[in-house]
Amino acid sequence: MTDQTPFVRPDMKAFLDGLAAMAGPSIADMTLEEARASYVALHGMADRPARDLPVMRDLTCPGPGGDIPLRLYDTREDRDPGPVITFYHGGGFVIGDLETHHALCTEIAALMDLPVVAVDYRRAPEHPFPAAIDDCEAATRWIASSPGALGRGCTGIITIGDSAGGTATLAVGQLLASNAADAPVVLQVPIFPLASDAMGSASLDQFSDGFVLTKPAIEFFDVAYAADRSDPRGFPILGDHAAAPPTVLVTASLDPIRDSGRDYAKALTDAGVSFTFLEMRGVTHSFTNLRGAVPSTQADLERMIAAMKFTLATSEASGA
């Protein structure tokens, strides 16, 4: 049964009321340049400031469409070989970039005390599906090979991303399960991902407007990205879940694509895969980038980080 009056946290409600009062145009009514600028502006207004880390360095790696821009974050100048976090940004595969998720990447690097490499994959509509996934896979394989340019050895990959980046997280996990990289994926962390087709879902109907991500925006991204609805790289629910790596799956209760993440949780359960499922109650899509305007979401991020550390520790202890 669908809740008619879903719980909304007070600080989340205040932020949503503020957005409504601004009464800006829908993303679907903007030009591509305006849409991308509005996404940068939203995160700049709503996120916490970036942490100042000892290592923040731009890199590139070879990709199928040319060099792929990357950004390395680390709390230490020097490290022994160990896991490397590979981050894929959100934005519907259309509007995000390294800058929109810069603050979040500094926070993840600081809280995990592990290197983070953010991937600036090609975006639609200039480069539609599967260009973004091809770039994410290529960058992840490059990182797994412990290239000298990275300056530290990689013994395992932790893939993580929000929204479209969550979709990429799942797709890369499946691609590397079927064709291994030089280092294994030791943990995947899809954050409010699009795993299955959201069209027609109850959550899309319930939260179609007024909850940060809107149905028109989802339709805008869907047309621009043009993912093949029969391809697991576009809709990872279609892939093999039995070989999924250790997983921390995160959804938001007020998210129009929430049910897509829940579908993935069911698929893992049906495949007999153990995982951690966190649904953050009373918050919207993109809560990981709203930590300044919605202070309670910092605790949500820290809860996710704690689950990541726990899953890594238990996987190592079991030899997985």
Layout of helices and strands:
Elements: H1 10-22, H2 32-46, E1 55-61, E2 68-74, E3 82-88, H3 102-112, E4 116-119, H4 131-144, E5 154-162, H5 164-178, E6 185-191, H6 202-206, H7 215-225, E7 248-252, H8 258-270, E8 276-280, H9 297-318
Parallel strand pairs: 3-4, 3-5, 5-6, 7-8
Antiparallel strand pairs: 1-2, 2-4
Helix pairs in contact: 4-5
Tell me, rounded to a whole number, the average pLDDT: 96
Q: What gap, in angstroms, lies between the N and C termini?
A: 38 Å
Largest sheet: 6 strands, mixed
Class per helix and strand makeup: alpha/beta
SS field, number of helical segments: 9
> In sequence order, what are the helices and strands, one letter per element?
HHEEEHEHEHEHHEHEH
Radius of gyration based on Cα positions: 18 Å
Overall body shape:
globular
Query: How many DSSP E strands?
Result: 8
Low-confidence spans: pLDDT under 50, at least 5 residues?
none
Q: What is the oligomeric state here?
A: single chain
Strand sequence of the main sheet, in spatial order? 1-2-4-3-5-6
Classify the beta-strand content into a percent band: 15-25%
Helix content: 25-40%
Could you characterize the architecture of this molecule?
With 320 residues, the chain is of the alpha/beta class. Helix content is 37%, strand content 16%. It is built from nine helices and eight strands. The chain has helices at 10-22, 32-46, 102-112, 131-144, 164-178, 202-206, 215-225, 258-270, 297-318, and strands at 55-61, 68-74, 82-88, 116-119, 154-162, 185-191, 248-252, 276-280. The protein has a six-stranded mixed beta sheet with strand order 1-2-4-3-5-6, sandwiched between helices. Strands 7-8 form a two-stranded parallel ribbon. α5 (164-178) links the parallel β5 and β6. α4 (131-144) crosses α5. The radius of gyration is 18 Å and the shape is globular. The model has no long low-confidence stretch (mean pLDDT 96).
